[in-house]
Design brief:
Largest interface: A-B, 43 and 43 residues
CATH architecture of the largest domain in chain A: 3-Layer(aba) Sandwich
CATH superfamily of the largest domain in chain A: Periplasmic binding protein-like II
Distance between the termini of chain A: 30 Å
Radius of gyration of chain A: 20 Å
CATH topology of the largest domain in chain A: D-Maltodextrin-Binding Protein, domain 2
Number of domains of chain A: 3
Strand content of chain A: 25-35%
Structural class of chain A: alpha/beta
Oligomer: homodimer
């Protein structure tokens, strides 16, 4: 079987780097990397069986959640998280000209623009920041226009043979992004999970409408069992203002009895409940 | 005293509309609306005493949280929320040409682009979506380029005398945005608060590093007192991955004794705790 891995394209994105890092951890003989034009499409491709795995960014240490990953996971069915990867993010400025004064526009993914905003304000105050679908897509503007610059990775600059004007332009030195490796629950023959001592279980739920205290009730289920939550994120349910889908990362394995009983009680007090399973977190250096 | 209200500019943004709606609720004799180039700058202007009030978007019913509002509130000191306003959002497509096939690029604020993504994919599949700092800033591209379109409001089209090609292009009919009216805690002589039967109290906190169970402990403080939380949002603390600032909206008034005792206990189990006070929510039709 040739293992196919979906990631945000074109080649050279941080998602592709995360996919390569994931493959490095295994010795998978035969693999195809499948770049897609949006994060939503990567996850959908795995949900629809076009690909075996998706590597999708879930949050950045500076800019926070990647909303499209959460929203798409909620919309798809029968997906589970297999592994979490934390990848260091080192942005470079790519442009045809080495002269910063000649740069009029900077292109990149909104997350990358956000992660370099202080550097941009100090070093390129005269430029307009323009959002692209991926850090690599930004490079096409640099190829076409000598007054354009892009924020992308060292690898992307090499891949597209474009000059690096400045390295390490992210505002925070320990900028990193957490990725989830996602697969269909029923897919067999996947690379083994890399075990670490950090195991998480993630789930998402919506609450029955017009029931005050409903969120409190669900949080009590975790509190009573001393299950620590490392993160709670809310996303709009898109039904009405004040109606949310909650995403929770719990510091527990789904195999523990405590978690089983929590899940049972959650079934009763939530409207829709999705468990994405347990997964160990690996940090790439 | 001339009351000055900061909002995201240029004139014609939804934030300006929220400011006008807020003024409509009062009969304030003398007011200046002060447009700023970014949401961060509006809130900073009030924190620094340049303006009396800021009207800042906090979340949209479709696209979710406005991260920059949360991050800036956390960075500033001594600010409080005076009122919440929910404003219906009705997007229109503005372009020089009525022929959709001639449109090559659509400009708008990323939130507005997100709120119309299905409409764009169906009606303008050939166009590139380009992010701007505000929905009104997008109009300058329409003025300059006959193949450009903007997503903005009916009011903005009138203000800038540009043609509306299509009305009600948002994907969800009940699209609305919640705004917070923010002032310095010490500012006197502000317009009276509009009382309603929906009162919220908002606060934010960071947790001491490397203390497993710290989030659990804070949630228990609310659970034990049956204080319902309508929303929990996490933002990266920007110190390290997995380290967050949590924003909570509680369905209680800060004047209640139950809340006082919760706040006291929170002081002990959080690292930094900021309370933004209590405020009633008004829905604009």
């Amino acid at each position: 079987m040739t293992l196919s891995i979906a990631h945000l394209g074109p080649p050279g994105t941080y998602a592709e780097q995360a996919a390569l890092a994931y493959l490095d951890l295994h010795s998978t003989p035969s693999t195809t990397l499948r770049p897609y034009a949006s994060i939503a499409r990567t996850i959908q491709s795995t949900a629809q069986g076009e690909t075996h795995l998706t590597i999708a960014p879930i949050e950045n240490s500076i800019e926070g959640s990647v909303a499209t990953t959460l929203d798409t996971l909620w919309q798809c069915s029968d997906l589970q998280i297999r592994q979490a990867l934390v990848l260091p993010i080192r942005h470079v400025l790519i442009a045809q000209t080495p002269n910063l004064q000649k740069i009029k526009a900077v292109y990149s993914h909104p997350q990358a623009l956000g992660q370099c905003q202080r550097w941009l304000a100090t070093n390129l105050p005269q430029t307009t920041a323009i959002a692209t679908n991926s850090t690599t897509e930004a490079l096409q503007y640099v190829q076409a226009d000598p007054s354009a610059a892009a924020i992308s990775s060292e690898r992307a600059a090499q891949l597209y043979e474009l000059p690096i004007v400045q390295r390490t332009i992210q505002d925070h030195p320990d900028n990193c992004t957490r990725f989830w490796v996602i697969n269909q629950q029923k897919t067999a023959d996947l690379p083994p999970v890399i075990e670490t001592d950090q195991t998480y279980t993630s789930l998402a739920f919506s609450l029955p409408a017009n029931q005050p205290g409903a969120l409190l009730k669900t949080l009590q289920i975790f509190a009573e069992r001393s299950i620590n939550l490392s993160r709670i994120e809310s996303r709009p349910s898109r039904r009405s203002m004040g109606d949310y889908v909650f995403f929770i990362d719990a510091e527990i394995s789904a195999e523990q009895t405590t978690f089983h009983s929590a899940l049972e009680q959650l079934q009763a007090s939530t409207e829709v409940l999705k468990s994405f399973g347990s997964y160990p977190l690996v940090t790439i250096s």
